[in-house]
Write a structure and sequence with these properties.
- The chain is an all-alpha fold and 288 residues long.
- It has a single domain (26-37, 75-261, 268-286), classed as MetI-like (MetI-like fold, Orthogonal Bundle), CATH 1.10.3720.10.
- It has helices spanning 3-15, 18-39, 76-112, 114-128, 132-143, 147-173, 177-184, 189-197, 202-225, 237-243, 254-281, 283-286; strands at 58-60, 63-65.
- It has a two-stranded antiparallel sheet.
- Helix 3 (76-112) packs parallel to helix 6 (147-173), helix 3 crosses helix 9 (202-225) and helix 9 (202-225) packs parallel to helix 10 (237-243).
- The radius of gyration is 22 Å and the shape is elongated.
- The two termini are 23 Å apart.
- The mean pLDDT is 83.
């Protein structure tokens, strides 16, 4: 990105209010995810029946549970910190997998057209014809729980969005003068696709990716809530919500409130940041 555009983005971010707060929250979540094992006060899998369902800020057996403990006496704060790693890892990795597949498919479909375009778009239509959450449940039941399987399934579910956007942009750009000039200079197909066309559609892809990360995090939480995400031994925000179902009637509010807040703030921050990126990177909205 040119230095002038970088300065413009930075000035726009500094002048904004909510995007700055959203970016700050995401930075905190990223730091927590990266250094969770060192920041967590206790082992997230450590059980202590003597301190089960301890209230926030309570102390027992020489241990302070700042956000309380669950039905097995596990520290909620430690599990929350570890859960951030899974949510961000799955979200970013799934977007990377889906983005790579979708971008390549969209470039080929838009540039070559013909049967390549027809095949790609029919595959996309077939996937869109089924609710994705049902497809994810079906694949995870067959493949089994696991972080790798979860990333693969969620990544496959995201490629259609990228493919359709990239195809439309490629159709509009493939006859432009700068693409014709690249052909006249003898550039190969791969060079035209990835060095001439792709840099001109990075802006909408960046916006889509920011929104899709939020969507993937929500989907991961939903699948973990259903017990189909990662193994039960791995703490995630969705599984923490699932474990709180049987204790809500007993007024153990902290078991659902803290993981719910973590999901809400993370997803909301990605959406706010994506909305700001759309306003900044879209020249039609920028000039208003």
């Amino acid at each position: 990105m040119p230095r002038r555009d970088t300065r413009r983005l930075w000035r726009s971010l500094v002048a904004a209010k909510w995007p700055v707060l959203a970016l700050g929250i995401l930075i905190v979540v990223a730091v927590v995810a990266a250094f969770g094992p060192w920041l967590a006060p206790l082992d997230p899998a450590r059980q202590s029946i003597g301190s089960r369902l301890a209230e926030p800020l309570s102390a027992g057996q020489g241990v302070t549970h700042w956000l309380g403990s669950d039905v097995l006496g596990r520290d909620v704060l430690s599990r929350l910190l570890y859960g951030a790693r899974i949510s961000l890892l799955v979200g970013l990795a799934a977007i990377t997998v889906g983005g790579v597949v979708g971008i390549v498919a969209g470039l080929l479909a838009g540039y070559f057209g013909g049967w390549v375009d027809d095949l790609t778009m029919r595959l996309a239509d077939m996937q869109l014809a089924f609710p994705f959450i049902l497809l994810a449940i079906m694949f995870l039941v067959v493949l089994g729980p696991g972080v790798g399987n979860l990333i693969l399934v969620l990544g496959i579910g995201q490629w259609v969005t990228y493919a359709r956007i990239v195809r439309a942009e490629t159709l509009a750009l493939r006859e432009k003068e700068f693409v014709e000039a690249a052909r006249a200079l003898g550039d190969g197909t791969a060079s035209i696709l990835f060095r001439t066309i792709l840099p001109n559609i990075v802006a909408p892809l960046t916006v889509i990716a920011s929104f899709n990360v939020a969507s993937v995090i929500l989907t991961e939480a939903a699948l973990s809530f259903l017990g189909l995400g990662v193994p039960p031994s791995v703490p995630t925000w969705g599984s923490m919500l699932a474990e709180s179902r049987d204790t809500l009637l007993a007024n153990k509010w902290w078991l659902a409130v803290f993981p719910g807040l973590a999901i809400m703030l993370t997803v909301l921050s990605f959406n706010i940041l994506g909305d700001w990126l759309r306003d900044v990177l879209d020249p039609r909205l920028r000039d208003r």
